[in-house]
Amino acid sequence: MNDGNMTTNSVEAEYANIANRNAWPLVYQKIGRECQNYTYTCIEAKKPQNKPLNRYRDVNPYDHSRIILTRCERDYINANLVKMERANRKYILTQGPLAFTVSHFWLMVWEQHSRAILMLNKIIEKNEIKCHWYWPHGIGAEHKMALTDVQLTVEQLSEEDCSYYSTRVFRIQDMESGESREVIQFHYTTWPDFGVPSSPGAFLQYLTRVRASGALEPDVGPAIVHCSAGIGRSGTFCLVDSCLVIIEKEGEQSVNIQEILLEMRKDRMGLIQTPDQLRFSYQAVIEGAKRLDPNWTEEPKMEESIYSTVAETEEEAPPPPPPRGESLARPPARPLPAIPASTSLGNLACEFREESSDEGPGTPPPADSSQSSDDQQASSADDEDDEPPPSVPESGETSETQRPDLRRRKNRELADRVSAMKRRARNAEKWHNLKRSLYKPLTITFGIIIAGILVYSYVKH
User: Among the options 42, 131, 162, 227, which is catalytic?
Assistant: First the structure.
């Protein structure tokens, strides 16, 4: 896609050139056009029995790389094995579980011998459920989850809060054989929808922690990487990690970021969802390569509390973005905002005068009132969109004493909305469990009745 291999310096030059021309949307669009030549199929994902298992109708796993479940009523799950041979890396990219695919998710973790789950989203974002809560709600055996349909139990052993991400350790046990394994979840809690982390440095600290666990090594099962759809934030993580491994193995003259992204998109569609995420990937690769220098000195620790502040002051959700297929081919309407610079990036970060909305408003399809909130999400076409900026008073008349009261009121309103959504999610899960529990006895009863009618008719005649 680019002429020749690029050195790290040429990556920096390419980055500066694209940024100065504000050409990230054009570069991103060019990648999208290249992917239109792919001829991979998604036949299994579009079968009627599998359609409800997809969170988004336009994010489907390719048939040639999809994960196949072996100990389940259906072998389908919306997940792909993404391989980058040059980096000796394998990742499983998947959607955030739905209420009725939680057991499928844990079965995949078990059957693929994965050591870690990289969760890059929050449960609720923009007042919408983006992922079902799929792990135990507390630590200890009393909170253990029993997934009887796949014969597994999941128990949470510990939890650690690391400021902008959390880690949790789970024990998965096979109810048939008694075998058990431990899996660690790295939950990045401040990466905004359809956006990027606050700085490359903070992201690289998270990546370093994941690598230190050994979860990305070739001698263990592929790490499970997911956000809401499993393509935007998940693709960004895998692209940066693979590029840095290649630089470390083959030297600074070996990386072509766009070619590596195109290679990864052969295994799962739509990786990297916005020009902003592509730009952030360049920044993280450039800074990560600098950190490989033995003379590099660590900068002060970078926090990401800015996004939690945005979430607390958010008044209302923005309009949903259009279908993901359109986002792959259409540039944003306005220039992208600059990503907060990190000190080791020097003059690479370019300032732009306007903020942008990566996606214009779209119209979601009407949802059946009998569907649960997760079902409605499965039929929607939205994915990850930018966090809105915090609201600013139009005049300077708001006093310092009024602001804390206003913030507390907004926090209470947001907490009430979140609590209501959680209640709806729990009710939906109870309804699905009830339907599953009644299905088999009702089927048997109707079968007996029909058989009795047939026997009676035969005897009578």
Answer: 227
Whether the Cβ atoms of residue 155 and residue 161 lie closer than 8 Å to each other = no
Q: Is 227 a catalytic residue?
A: yes
Q: What is the residue extent of each domain of the chain? A: 1-297+315-329, 405-461
Residue 99 three-state SS = coil
pLDDT in tens, 334-355: 555 454 444 444 444 443 333 3
The H or E element containing residue 147 is strand 145-147
Strands 165-174 and 152-161, bridge-based pairing? antiparallel
Could you tell me the two tokens for 314? 């958010």
Q: Does domain 1-297+315-329 have CATH number 3.90.190.10?
A: yes
Please give the radius of gyration of the chain, using alpha carbons only, rounded to the nearest integer.
Answer: 24
For 5, 290, 366, 392, 396, the CA distances from 282, given in Å and listed in that order, are: 15, 13, 38, 31, 39
Nearest Cα neighbor of 132 from 159, 75, 163, 94 is 94
Rounded Cα gap, residues 325 and 33, in angstroms: 11
Residue of 212, 204, 273, 237 lying closest to 84 (CA atoms): 237
* C-beta neighbour count of 408 within 10 angstroms: 11
Tell me the per-residue pLDDT of 380-421, one tens digit each, with 9 for 90 and over.
444 443 333 444 444 444 444 556 677 777 777 777 877 777
